[in-house]
Write a structure and sequence with these properties.
The structure is a homodimer. By secondary structure, chain A is α+β, with helices and mostly antiparallel strands. The first copy, chain A, folds into four domains: 87 residues, Uridine Diphospho-n-acetylenolpyruvylglucosamine Reductase, domain 2 (2-Layer Sandwich); 119 residues, Uridine Diphospho-n-acetylenolpyruvylglucosamine Reductase, domain 3 (2-Layer Sandwich); 102 residues, Alpha-Beta Plaits (2-Layer Sandwich); 84 residues, Alpha-Beta Plaits. In chain A, 35% of the residues lie in helices and 20% in strands. The first copy, chain A, contains 15 helices and 18 strands. A seven-stranded antiparallel beta sheet of chain A has the order 15-12-14-13-17-18-16, sandwiched between helices. A five-stranded antiparallel beta sheet of chain A has the order 5-6-10-8-9. In chain A, strand 5 and strand 6 form a beta hairpin. The longest helix of chain A has 20 residues. Chains A and B meet through strand 9, helix 7, strand 11, helix 8 and helix 10 of A and strand 9, helix 7, strand 11, helix 8 and helix 10 of B.
Chain lengths: 455, 455
């Protein structure tokens, strides 16, 4: 990119464009694995939708790649800089435009932090349901870009299920509106769903109308310890067979308990070899919790006492514990999903392959919807062969999930990192359709190229 | 279309192709308004996915329009024949391929009737939630084509929210799979959502993996009579403000009560000028119903006794009462949706415009999600000017819904009939994007041309 083009942009948007080394470094990556370390050529922080449109017109005129970024909390490298790219950070578009308590909707700018929206609507007895682990710092725009999930998805659905309408700046700077303010609406193709989860490759989302849900009257939490993972996984199926729908159903294996004990000084692992955390909510919360308790006790689980604060504390720990960064460790967190009945088979397969490849493994799962986050790691000091073994284990774990009817990504998105697996899941004809849809929206391929789809 | 082409098709698929006048007439229209009466050139009823693929290859080779049809219960003319078209009826693809009670999913062919799927999964304590009024005869394939809604949407979502994966035959006969068998999955663009509601214009859905929900333990139903519509609409908002989520929340105006009385010999209208039907379900059903009862009694409503069968009977009546076809009446049912807070203003506007245009009006609403079905009618014996007045009232009612932040179609789809209004709701840029997406999937424009989008 010519320096002149950048000068044009800086001059047109004083205070919005930075090329400082500090900013370039800070905005060059998200929290996902880095395929190739690249510095962007500039960071732009527009203050208005008009300014976003102007940046896109400029990018089209000068054929500059635009990597749109929320809080940079993504886990698949979707916001990683690519060669010659400009980072478009939407952090300054952070206004809650309106909350409509009777319509049970809110309109927000993309830079609004998930937790801030929840705080703003709580006074009306409402909540924004999707709750990725990053909810305290990730933005609604970023959540939309990745179709983010979270803990409460099994009951309340994922981001797409809470998004009614979008304002989108197209590659050429045109501003469009997709969807509808109403809960229901079937006019034309569902461009809102198409845009949700497209990771900034089809347009830049600058406004979001969300559907809000009712803050639950009552919340009950259970912690159930089992001897081992297979028994805990059987507990997940048993809750399902009792046809009770928890809001949260988290499954932690023994090594995860050990890791939590190590990080927090707790003694979880001494209680059992696997932990199932269950939260019910709403008018039926108490009855649902009782039904689940009966089921789990019947399976031999050690279940926390009614009303104990211990279980709530554990949910909080699960929610916020990302694991400490350890210098000497090369670690990759995965995000596959499998049909619920396959959870136990899948984790058995993971354990076998981790042992075979000599890599460490721990597993947590949003068990209510079969979404697993296995973490694999090796010591860096074991040398490059250890990292190779890790990569082999990762590849194998993804193939195994697919063989069991699963998907390569339950909620983190394909981003940059998982593109190598997308063709394992989807047929060439499907990949090709996506490429051609991308061309419809972005004929010059300037919107987050090299992400989300196989181009 | 050349007769030879048809001969080729008939010869290749003995027993699947009909050109009998009876079939051509029977399959020429759905239940929606007819824009232009057209006979198809043939009706094809394939018995396998292979056969669907062969028909599409044939259609591509001979440039023949394919109008895919489920049960023909659509209300927007989406399955109406167009000039030179072949009707592709999927009624013979009616197998439930599998029910997976632990995964809480089922795989069905498109011709499976909604009620039949529900009957098959009920023995496992499961249900398929989307319940359009036509559920006793409409097909899952047709429900997917229109992204059908129903009574339980406010709590359980629309068809899209229950569809996990699709098998789709593309215009050239290629078979693809979209989506995933898991509850969550974000690999690539959401082609499943794009296909859902696309009314047969992007591909032919030949397999559907649905997510099932739990049959509720308990169901409570209330019937609340109010003096007039505005008070009943205030009841809808009051239930929302109490942050109680009903499964069903149906609002009937006085003229609808009169019509039901006329058809069924009941005396509903004598109880009040407007009726709110409320159903709660799940573990909290009784407590939710009590909370709602308190709210509505506080507003002066006359609420049915706890456990009375009357309310259940009324829900059944509401569900199945489409109104008798009356020879001398020209009648059009509408399907707009508005934000919930606008229900009362919208119906007031409707009443004013009905009076001004001298047309009859009755209104029912899926009030929980602001989706209204006003019915306008005039006597045919009043002459062509009466029909013109009706059309004016319809146009005006749609403009009014849009002015209040609504949409032209909440759940029936654009089909053929509502295309004249689509441009009122969506900007030219959005219409253009849809046209170009259509071209990606169907470059020859053989898939249900003239439907769903503005081409």
């Amino acid at each position: 990119m010519q320096a002149e083009a950048l000068a044009v942009l800086s001059e047109a948007h004083p205070g919005a464009v930075s090329t400082s080394q500090e900013d370039l470094a800070m905005y060059s990556q998200d929290q996902g694995p880095v395929v190739e370390t690249v510095s962007p050529v500039a960071v732009v922080r527009p203050r208005s939708v008009d300014e976003v449109q102007a940046v896109l017109r400029w990018a089209t005129a000068h054929r500059v790649s635009i990597v749109t970024r929320g809080a940079g909390s993504g886990l698949s490298g979707g916001a990683n800089a690519t060669p010659g790219s400009v980072i478009l950070s939407l952090e300054r578009l952070n206004r809650i435009i309106s909350v409509d308590p009777d319509d049970e909707t809110a309109v927000v700018e993309p830079g609004v932090v998930n937790a801030d929206l929840n705080a703003a609507v709580a006074e009306y007895g409402l909540m924004y349901a999707p709750d990725p682990a990053s909810y305290r710092w990730s933005t609604i725009g970023g959540n939309v870009a990745t179709n983010a999930g979270g803990l409460r998805c099994a009951k309340y659905g994922v981001t797409r299920d809470s998004v009614l309408a979008l304002e989108v700046v197209l590659a050429d700077g045109t501003l469009i509106t997709t969807g509808h303010r109403t809960f229901k609406g079937v006019a034309g193709y569902d461009l809102t769903a198409l845009m949700t989860g497209s990771e900034g490759t089809l347009g830049v989302v600058v406004g979001i109308t969300v559907r809000l849900r009712y803050l639950p009257r009552d919340i009950r939490t259970l912690a159930a310890y089992f001897d081992d993972f297979p028994q805990a996984a059987a507990g997940v199926l048993a809750i399902g067979r009792a046809r009770v729908q928890p809001a949260i159903l988290e499954l932690l294996d023994g090594r995860t308990l050990e890791a939590l004990d190590g990080a927090h000084g707790s003694d979880l692992r001494s209680h059992g070899g696997s932990l199932l955390l269950v939260q019910t909510d709403g008018f039926g919360a108490a009855a649902e919790a009782q039904a689940i308790r009966d089921v789990l006790v019947g399976l031999g689980a050690q279940v926390s006492d009614e009303g104990s604060e211990e279980a709530d504390r554990l949910v909080d720990l699960r929610r916020h514990s990302r694991g400490d960064a350890v210098e000497d460790v090369y670690r990759v967190g995965e995000d596959v999903a499998v049909p619920k009945s396959q959870l136990v088979h899948y984790v058995a397969a993971l354990e076998t392959m981790a042992a075979r490849h000599g890599v460490h493994l721990k597993v947590v799962a949003h068990a209510g919807d079969g979404n697993l986050h296995p973490t694999f790691w090796v010591q860096r000091s074991d040398g490059p062969q250890a990292e190779e073994r890790l990569e082999q284990a990762l590849d194998e774990s993804v193939r195994s999930a697919l063989a069991l009817g699963g998907t390569i990504t339950g909620e983190h998105g394909v981003g940059q990192y998982k593109r190598r697996w997308l063709g394992w899941e989807q047929a060439v004809e499907v990949l090709d359709l996506q490429r051609r849809i991308k061309q419809v929206f972005d004929p010059l391929d300037i919107l987050n190229p090299g992400k989300a789809i196989v181009s």
